[in-house]
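Sample 3 of the quickstart, ligand nicotinamide-adenine-dinucleotide:
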Amino acid sequence: MSKILVTGGAGFIGSNFVRMMLAETDHQIINLDLLTYAGNLENLSDVEGRANYAFVRGDIVDARVMSAVFAEHQPEVVVHFAAESHVDRSVLDATAFVQTNVVGTQVLLDQSRHHGVRRFVHVSTDEVYGSLGATGLFTEDTPLQPNSPYSSSKAGSDLLVRAAVHTHDMDCVITRCSNNYGPFQFPEKLIPLMIANAREDTPLPVYGDGKNVRDWIHVDDHCRGIRRAMEDGATGEVYNFGGDAERENLFVVHEILRLVGKGEDLIRFVTDRPGHDRRYAMDSSKAKSQLGWSPSFTFESGLAQTVEWYLANQQWWERVRSGAYQDYYSRQYGGR
Ligand code: NAD
Ligand code: TDX
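Result:
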């Protein structure tokens, strides 16, 4: 049994990871999250009150607060999800991206070192590698060529983690994953946005020509990969995780319309995202051979499950869209 500090555990992937770890292990989980617009404690209302689960609200950028959190909880392992995660928001204003993703990661590395954390798992993204042409795959040796403020801030954090290994002998592992989808994803990202809009007969905004390619992975497969890297990854190593599921955006949108039972007349081609990366695709062979990991969902089975979840949990995303989910913290925790 270990004490694991999960940062960003109220977000999409973090909350799925926390739920998985509580279901499958007896580790003590401390969920540290600032509850920005993307943090939603309703994602974890089913585990609230569990003896081996605690929630702490805090900003990873604030070294004084982080020092107190590490001193109080004495985590042995840190799994670091907390980040600003949406590319479009980083185009509008990169300030919070640099603060949270770069400065916040260094604060966590410093606190981990000062408080004797045994292992630090840094959750990163395929976007640090930049954009691919029509062929080829990202490997762990692909040079870092991030193109957006978001991906540049993530690449910056990856390099700080690398420096902590080489300079301070810290035991860190970096995971880089492709586009996730699944339950509890904030409906600003492609798949949940399109499901919610289709459900409500609102136009589906497709950027550019809709031919950009993403490698889609179900969030459960990503979480299992992070767990394997946490348990058996080698110090200082990077592990890529992908879904072996490259699809053009327009294909994804058509599939969603079919599954929701709506027509293609809802599709609207809109102005392209500035600097829009054309294609991502992951080579996950290192994780497969060294960690014994492989994705269990096909894109078809995962998308069908995800659409079903959003249709069955309309209240969840309606509360996100209306902002009502932000009341949950004060109801649950009062003035704390
Ligand atoms: P998300 O936006 O859903 O969640 C981010 C969480 O971090 C939120 O709960 C938010 O409140 C918290 N947070 C933000 N700033 C904070 C701060 N200063 N202090 C404490 N908490 C803060 O993001 P996600 O999609 O779950 O992504 C999680 C991680 O995985 C990120 O590091 C992201 O870069 C990485 N990643 C995401 C994807 C994807 O497809 N979503 C793919 C690869 C990697
Ligand atoms: O309204 C939209 N219309 C559209 O065509 C949105 C929101 C997106 N898109 C396109 C842009 C991308 O080509 O869909 C694709 C996916 O977009 P996002 O869901 O915004 O994801 P992406 O930019 O690829 O980044 C995601 O994957 C890697 C996550 O948001 C990152 O956090 C992760 O690191």
